[in-house]
Amino acid sequence: MSELSVNHLLGIKYLQPEDIQLIFETADQFKEVINRPIKKVPSLRDITIANLFFENSTRTRLSFELAEKRLSADVVNFSASSSSVAKGETLIDTVNNILSMKVDMVVMRHPNPGAGIFLSKHVNAAIVNAGDGAHEHPTQALLDAYSIREKLGDVAGKKVVIVGDILHSRVALSNIFALQKLGAQVKVCGPATLIPKHIQDLGVEVELNLINALNWCDVANMLRVQNERMDIKFFPSTREYVQQYGLNKKILDRLEKEIVVMHPGPINRGVEITSDVADSNHAIILDKVENGVAVRMAVIYLLASKIKQYD
Length: 311
Description:
Strand content: 5-15%
Number of strands: 9
CATH class of the largest domain: Alpha Beta
CATH architecture of the largest domain: 3-Layer(aba) Sandwich
Largest sheet: 5 strands, parallel
């Protein structure tokens, strides 16, 4: 397969397993590029990309921006508070204003699920979903799966547990789709109040006991508790959450085997994982930052090559 089957990256749900493998193979090449003394390639000199962030983001926005600049694209950054974009029409108006500057691709984070899909139907540009509400975050899932492949040689056949706030996490849903498409087994683990109803319909098992989940898995992806998305209390106290679902070095050392620990960031140190876990050899948290740039370069490059094709 030499090109993506899609014109936008709206969610992992819309990708074929072959698309994911193509993105990974392309990211392998870009990983070599970003480890050279001169880290830029002229691949996208004639492409203009707008980054639209209607929700706060530091790591994802910087990672996309760096990926775009490494490919020599022209970059326009636009940030807006979610309050200024209350209606779909306003979103289209905003984007059309930016597209009138002859933008080829839009990377967008938006608080409303489905905003990227909505946009892709109304504007003439390639859309990359950088997170839409609690729905999907496809590039995060791609870089997570890419990092597992790099660390363990393959994703197929691996056992991955996603631990924590599954209910409010777009990372969890995208990860479930990506891991299953690549042949991994997936479980989720967390307080019953933070596990979505009907998640078993996605072919995912639920495990409420952290130690059981860790003894089962090859990889544990520890999610942040998203207090900003909670309008009611989902567990009695942070202290109780830590006792039940926090990962520390003592727990890791007692396991029957070595496991890989991941975290999408930002880490609440001492809540989901302790510092001695985050900074240990088990964790591939910083490896994922470098992989994030390579994977996003791959996505942007592959989508841009389709734009050029149809120009």
